[in-house]
Amino acid sequence: xxxxxxxxxxxxxxxxxxxxxxxxxxxxxSPSDTPPGPVTKAAPRxxxxxxxxxxxxxxxxxxxxxxxxxxxxxxxxxxxQQLQHKxxxxxxxxxxxxxxxxxxxxxxxxxxxxxxxxxxxxGAVSNVVRINVR
Length: 134
Known about the structure:
Blueprint: H1 3-27, E1 47-48, E2 51-52, E3 56-57, E4 62-70, E5 77-84, E6 87-96, E7 102-108, E8 113-121, E9 124-125, E10 129-133
Parallel strand pairs: 3-10
Antiparallel strand pairs: 1-4, 2-4, 4-7, 5-6, 5-8, 8-9, 8-10
């Protein structure tokens, strides 16, 4: 066999030995070792707040439920709901939010006793407002 050819084979084998541990290490690298790609942030959650101008009122006496929205577009339709027999029922009080992201609903309730109200719109649900109708 030619000594130059033997040397080339030996050098080739040496190169394989040098590169094979690196190749094996990169093949065994876990996905957490790779640098992170661009991070996408989740959209902020839309919220609604609700307050009543009265805690107690007479039947069919007008009061207001008002509040503000965050992370909702101006002009989003909000609707008043009342808890009746363990179900939320839509009442005929609705409006679009203003440019300042606020709303102000006129409400008249006829069901006497403790009433629970909330406002929904744009995928958001407000806190529960309690009104006592006498």
